[in-house]
Specification:
235 residues
Length: 235
Amino acid sequence: MLKEILESNALIYAMLVLCGIGVISKLAVWISYRRLTKATENMASSKNALTRQLKLKFENCYKLNLNVQNVPAFVDKYLQKYKVMGIRVHTADRVLKATLLLTALVGVAACAGAYWQKMGMRQIILYGSAALLSALVLGFVDFVLDTADKKAVAVTNLQDYLDNTLTNRLHHEYEDEPAKEAVEQKQPADLLQQGKAQVAATNLKMKKPKKQKKPKGDSIDEEEVIREIVREFLT
């Protein structure tokens, strides 16, 4: 059974398939990060779903007074959700390394099986060459398509926008402007209160009864009456 598999070169095809999967996954991740990098270069007009969701979440946190203290962690959290071909990008970025390891294991197993089945040096060299070629291709693709650099640029752009642009804009919109409006509205309100106080004081003065002066004649009559009463009492 093993000899038939080795003679059919099925393991060579398996190594080529693994190599193709690794290359495609790495290329897809590189394209995704490249698009994200372009989207983060102009965040204000970006139509990228991730950047729009990130901005919306950041603004909502700011409006609810839940200020984002750790912007790098906030950005990394959303990058963990970034997907390509239905799987998360950081997972797809590890596919190439996994296929490289599997290709090496298949190549070693094929060489060992050919040696054990005494199929000759030609078959052993064939499997060894296929494994080595696949590993070289995967290593070259991993080196050329530097997804780590693309991700670092995107992360830097996102952090710079959130820290230096969006935070300042939200600060002016939700902190400075209301304060100015409150000051502007306070002055008319104070004037209105002062006006009401003056009107109330005026009304109070108008309602307060004035003391009526007694006529001098009345005062004299009362004094004379008192004197007469005292004379009668003494006599």
